[in-house]
């Protein structure tokens, strides 16, 4: 999720709050600027040496983010326009997230129309780029379609918003993970950076395990570098959520066996409440995965559950690894998973998570 500064073929550009933009034969008419200071609707033009990126939901928790130490926030449709105003006041990019369908991917004219609509939406919302969240399986013989789409969307943004960032989300490994046999080397040459989604790394064998084991996450990063993607083009995304596994059996070696598809995702803030109020074991630690976990009993059914998650301690190890491998930055999915209430314990836990996130990457 990053972005550079190409030349722009623009006939007339003052502030995006004023006249329409004319770029590559398209006319962009942004909506009225929602900011009290209209200069805040102008795009961010600076480029960070290192990226500290947060994914955001659609609620009001954005008001509690640690804005002074992040470089970009990735949002979906329907985000609060005031978030953009606040982000720009802090020099932080707001980047929209989305993807085309498989049908559109395989149709060049449909891709062109989609790219133009995507740019128009970005301009109309006064945002600073686009995060391609394409997560469909492709065979190696089909990979060129995705590469073509990435180039098309990058070129469209280059002509309309020369300071915009265009990035791609990827699985935790470059080795055809989840059937996504993409040409990461070619894509890495086009985008500002590739964002490695280092989560959902579960082995589907009915055993509860960490969401993002450190050894598996590290190997995934190495896979991208082996695929000739420079470390300077990689940003590591770590999870601020975990998994709750209902155990059909808990073995003597502390392995929770569960029925596939019965596990559910749980936000860090909710996990902390479970740990404080319902845990039967207290926090445990997996040396193999370098991740915390604990057990609790469902008060209604009496069934034992095992919860695997990441906290400030485990995530600091992932951030340290990313720094050692000289990645372009780090990211979290997602910032709204923390408890932003005023309860002192929640305040302390939330501050610890943000501090672990930004601590290694201040510059």
From TrEMBL:
Which residue ranges traverse the bilayer?
none
Domain of life of the source? Eukaryota
- Name the UniProt key words of this record, in alphabetical order: Glycosidase, Hydrolase, Signal
Signal peptide position in this chain?
1-25
Q: Does the keyword Coiled coil apply?
A: no
Q: Name one GO biological process term.
A: oligosaccharide catabolic process
Q: Name one GO molecular function term.
A: chitin binding
Tell me what this protein is called: GH18 domain-containing protein
Supply the source organism for this entry. Answer: Strongylocentrotus purpuratus (Purple sea urchin)
């Amino acid at each position: 999720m990053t972005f550079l500064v190409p030349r722009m073929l623009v006939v007339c550009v003052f502030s995006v709050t004023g006249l329409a933009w004319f770029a590559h034969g398209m006319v962009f008419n942004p909506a009225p600027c929602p900011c009290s200071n209209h200069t805040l609707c102008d795009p961010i033009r600076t480029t960070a040496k290192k990226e500290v990126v947060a994914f955001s939901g659609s609620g009001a928790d954005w008001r509690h983010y640690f804005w002074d130490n992040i470089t970009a926030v990735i949002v979906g449709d329907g985000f609060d326009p005031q978030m953009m105003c606040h982000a720009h006041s802090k020099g932080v990019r707001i980047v929209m997230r989305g993807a085309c369908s498989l049908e559109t991917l395989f149709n060049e004219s449909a891709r062109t129309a989609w790219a133009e609509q995507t740019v128009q939406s970005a301009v109309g919302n006064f945002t600073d780029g686009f995060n391609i969240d394409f997560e469909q399986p492709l065979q190696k013989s089909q990979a060129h379609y995705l590469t073509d789409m990435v180039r098309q969307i990058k070129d469209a943004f280059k002509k309309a918003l020369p300071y915009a960032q265009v990035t791609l989300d990827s699985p935790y490994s470059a080795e055809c993970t989840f059937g996504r046999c993409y040409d990461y080397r070619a894509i890495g040459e086009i985008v500002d950076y590739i964002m490695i989604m280092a989560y959902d790394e579960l082995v589907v064998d009915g055993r509860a395990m960490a969401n993002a084991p450190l050894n598996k996450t590290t190997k995934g990063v190495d896979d991208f570098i082996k695929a000739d993607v420079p470390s300077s083009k990689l940003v590591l995304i770590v999870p601020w959520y975990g998994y709750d596994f209902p155990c059909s059996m808990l073995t003597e070696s502390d392995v929770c066996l569960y029925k596939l598809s019965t596990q559910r995702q749980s936000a860090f803030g909710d996990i902390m409440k479970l740990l404080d109020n319902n845990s039967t074991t207290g926090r445990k630690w997996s040396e193999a995965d370098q991740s915390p976990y604990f057990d609790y009993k469902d008060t209604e059914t009496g069934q034992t559950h095992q919860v695997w998650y990441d906290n400030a301690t485990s995530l600091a190890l992932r951030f340290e690894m990313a720094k050692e491998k000289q990645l372009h930055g780090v990211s979290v999915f997602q910032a709204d998973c923390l408890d932003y209430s005023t309860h002192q314990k929640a305040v302390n836990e939330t501050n610890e998570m943000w501090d672990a996130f930004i601590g290694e990457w201040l510059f």
